[in-house]
Design a protein that fits this description.
Carbamate kinase; disordered C terminus; EC 2.7.2.4 (chains A, B); ACT_Aspartokinase (chains A, B); 422 residues; nucleotide-binding (chains A, B); AceGlu_kinase-like_sf (chains A, B); homodimer; alpha/beta; 20 strands
Chain lengths: 422, 422
């Protein structure tokens, strides 16, 4: 029995009852002989409430103070959780990110972990205690200021601690039963995945799956820490994410799942002179505005005009900024006009089996075509195909693809949501 | 223009509006050329809400985790206050007790400050920033754990920082206009005191006045830091507490004020053998139970029985514990019975002028007698007389004494409460 890191999200500790339920589960793991380190998020809506307060006193809250504010949320949940565990007769100590040795860079609101020095955690464990650690936060290496890792950062805290402590598994407790072959809200027959490789999980996370964040999976892959995503509302096995399949029954599927994303918009730069350096100028302007773009497509140039169109997708939230940046650079780049379209959606098919099954791409397009879905952009990786369609077509497209690749479960019963339905 | 420490209590920063109002006042002081260090409490009822949460998960929350929990409150208010100041165009940085160098012992929930090493505060000030510090909290010297100083601890934080930074004044902002000659809720004609000595303020605080805590005044006296208690809702001068009178108009009054306290109970140990060591045995039993007692009176022994009664007062909250401790020691001590009475009140007259005006004591008892108030216990110091009466008589007694010593103001208008009435 080795060391286990467990991470509980805000919906699992939304109120006193939730905290007591989670405490019982933690004590269970301890009784089973594990050394237990718990990473906890802020209770329920605490973070949103704090953000709301900040906006009331200042329209643009500053980075350092904003981090100081938000980290109060985990401080509350971790202290309460430690108390609840003690109340069950077991010893527990809570630690802030700083006390736990989570060292980050100085980029407030979205700091990156650069080192983990969990000396105090190790001592607490050696003394037989359960260690509770605040997720989402750290301390900056140079200034010793409190930092936060950005939304979803608690998962990263958990994986980073698991790596630093050489844990045998990092359990991510959430309000769903695991990672599914598609979003169960869209595809009723979506199945829980028993095992998925780091690579496929990375592609799913990059393509719109919300269960695990890309950064967290990346960290786990780098340090080879198996992740077990499971429900805090049931005792069921969830989804294992690791290098090698675990358990007897598990074998690698050709296709892991279908992800979709309707949070992106498309910008088309119309009438770009078809000569070297034009695309570079466009994407330099966008990159200088610190906007991450996703897919890019350049149309074939019309021979008669010598002009072409370039389209790319980006988060809707950054649409305004991108348009402004391009308008400002219009004189230098030399294009006719910009078109902005936020009524798009992206559907992605992910699976390592694609590499060795050349028919997958054809089947994918066939399924979309049969469902009457029009494709606007295409992009691929070795283990993923993504297409952009009209936003209205996304749900239908996801269901069609899911069914075409034999991912549908036999019964609707397979999809079980947790208690809060959040 | 020197360095000023300002402390704002929870009612001054109860909501976003309060925080913005306080931010303006802080910026004002900065504009006037001061270096400004601000100590802030948790917003409004935050601490009570956190205590409530703790009680929901554990009937007896443990010290270390309880401190971790409660300190989240100041973290929220100080970050918001720093944001609000920045929004007014001034630089501000917030610091936890630990970051501010507030070093304490390890007694959780009521730690004592043993050192203040405000290096980061000094740096922030030197860089032209306003420093915002979390009140009520510190970090333990040996274990580096978060500690709290107990209720009212933010005032102590402010005075301790003022001492460590050699501030010219420690301003305590509250929701009343200053220290009054009596509780204005009881005595409508109570007057605001312009200046009061540390000694008289210590006696008032020990006798039931709630505006400043005894520990905070003691600290200020030891390091000779003038305290200015004033309202955060007005620009009026409040009460100066210092060694020497300040300002032209201020001269030392014979009597500073009348304090009262109805939070105590009286225990009478009946039928104690009148022989050496009996009283010692009684108070050893009480002290071993960690109960602080206030007044003690031993009746004259009845010659016929050789037995006497011993009465003492103590906080009501500790009554049960004291009775239990005495019952347990009954065999060793040898008394007949115990009487418990929580319907008592204490009235105290405080003033350094007592030392040189021998008529004060007589006038005090005359005033009580004229008001028909019966006296049960008496205790005195060089600058204070206290009596215990029936609880029902307390308000009447306070008014009578206040009037008899010429403390009544000419009009009711002098008593001004702040906006929230809290």
């Amino acid at each position: 029995m080795g060391l286990v890191v467990q991470k509980y999200g805000g919906s699992s500790v939304a109120d006193a009852e939730g905290i007591k339920r989670v405490a019982k589960r933690i004590v269970e793991a301890k009784k089973n002989g594990h050394q237990v380190v718990v990473v906890v998020s802020a209770m329920g809506d605490t973070t949103d409430e704090l953000i709301d307060l900040a906006e009331q006193v200042s329209p643009m809250p500053a980075g350092r103070e904003f981090d100081m504010l938000l980290t109060a949320g985990e401080r509350i949940s971790m202290a309460l959780l430690a108390m609840a565990i003690k109340n069950l007769g077991h010893e527990a100590q809570s630690f802030t990110g700083s006390q736990a040795g989570v060292i980050t860079d100085s980029v407030h609101n979205k700091a990156r972990i650069i080192d983990v020095t969990p000396g105090r955690i190790r001592t607490a464990l050696d003394e037989g205690n359960i260690a509770i650690v605040a997720g989402f936060q750290g301390v900056s290496q140079d200034k010793k200021d409190i930092t936060t890792l950005g939304r979803g950062g608690s998962d990263t805290t958990a994986v980073a601690l698991a790596a630093a402590l050489d844990a045998e598994v990092c359990e991510i407790y959430t309000d769903v039963d695991g990672v599914f072959t598609a979003d169960p809200r869209v595809v009723k027959k979506a199945k829980k995945i028993d095992w998925i490789s780091f690579e496929d999980m990375l592609e799913l996370a990059a393509s719109g799956s919300k269960v695990l964040l890309h950064r967290c999976v990346e960290y786990a892959r780098r340090y080879n820490i198996p992740i077990h995503v499971r429900s805090s509302f049931s005792g069921l096995q969830g989804t294992w994410v690791s290098n090698e399949p675990t358990g007897d029954k598990v074998e690698q599927a050709i296709i892991s799942g279908v992800a979709h994303d309707t949070s992106e918009a498309k910008i088309t730069v119309v009438g770009v002179p078809d000569k070297p350096g034009e695309a570079a100028a466009i994407f330099r302007a966008v990159a200088d505005a610190e906007i991450n773009i996703d897919m890019i497509v350049q149309n074939v140039s019309a021979a008669s005009t010598g002009l072409t169109d370039i389209s790319f997708t980006l988060p809707k939230a950054e649409g305004r900024k991108a348009i402004d940046a391009l308008e400002k650079a219009k004189g230098d780049i030399g294009f006719d006009s910009l078109r902005y379209d936020d009524q798009i959606g992206k559907i992605s098919l992910v699976g390592a089996g694609m590499k060795t099954n050349p028919g997958v791409t054809a089947d994918f397009f066939r399924a979309l075509s049969d469902a009457g879905v029009n494709i606007e952009l295409i992009s691929t990786s070795e283990i993923r195909i993504s297409v952009v369609t009209r936003a209205d077509d996304v749900n239908e497209a996801v269901r069609a693809v899911h069914s075409a690749f034999g991912l549908d479960s036999d019964s609707d019963e397979a999809v079980v949501y947790g208690g809060t339905g959040r």
